[in-house]
Write a structure and sequence with these properties.
With 343 residues, this protein is mainly alpha-helical. It has 11 helices and 2 strands.
Amino acid sequence: MTLPLAAVGVVENALVQVVKSLIIFAVVLQIVPLILLLERKLLGRFQARIGPNRVGKFGLLQPLADVVKLASKEQSTPATAVPWMMALAPVISIVTAVATLAIIPFGDVHNDPLFGAQWGLYGVDVSIGVLYAFAFGALAFYGLMLGGWASGSKYSFLGSMRSAAQLISYEIALGLSLLGVVMMAGSLSLTEIVRAQGAAGDGIWYVVPQFVGFVIFLIAGFAETNRPPFDLPEAEAEIVSGYNTEFGGMRFGSFFMAEYINMIVISGIAVAAFLGGWHGPGPAILDPLWVVLKMFLFIVLFIWIRATLPRLRYDQLMSFGWKILLPLATVNVLVTAILVVVI
């Protein structure tokens, strides 16, 4: 019995998506330890010290030692905690982070010389890519809330409440900062937004006409990933470690990994929306290299800001988001809408 051609196509597309998903997850598992090593090395240089240098040559095996340490630690659950929620919370955080990474385009569609098919260098290209990213970002919020509430600790609960308030406050500005790009490109798909910045579209990277939106996106991106100077949900000097205070072993490692994957996601969206994505000099085979290089610069910026700026007070954090960032983002959208209609 032979399957109809339509059914064969559906099966092939499903297999392609499964293979892409496995590749994305495997690559992320390799990249996060490298980012951790890069951060510790750069922080050492910023603070006039060497950084990790005892495990392996130049400390290159330090991430492996950290993984072994976390994997070998005992999982403890406080008597006042809800065990199944504590187990579910880090899973939600890591799954939503990896799922969001799937829409980051590393290259355009190319013809496969071996099988005659067309392959896109991205996990999935959905027509509502920007909304897709915000939907999974909202779901990730439940991982932090569940982790803090289910731990049965006042410090964890305070951290999760801070995280909720911070995400709600800065997610609005983050969305408005991308709205100008969406209006200029005429699409919510990140792939189409990148194409609009190439020769087939406007031919100009949106960081130029949308520089205000770019700066707002960067600041809100720092807040969305709970990175310094917006790391109030984990403020060690105030609430021990926030929502992950009671987590140990690989559960803590999953929260930790999700934070760094979210850094990669924010960097990838910034590259696609403002810095031309895969566009750069040279042949098409270099497209993924340009994306990775631009994302690398954003990762270094995340680390640089951590070493430079102190943590804000909580009232300063909320005031900056609602009184400065949100009005600026709204004005930027209004001006962009007027210019798009008129010009």
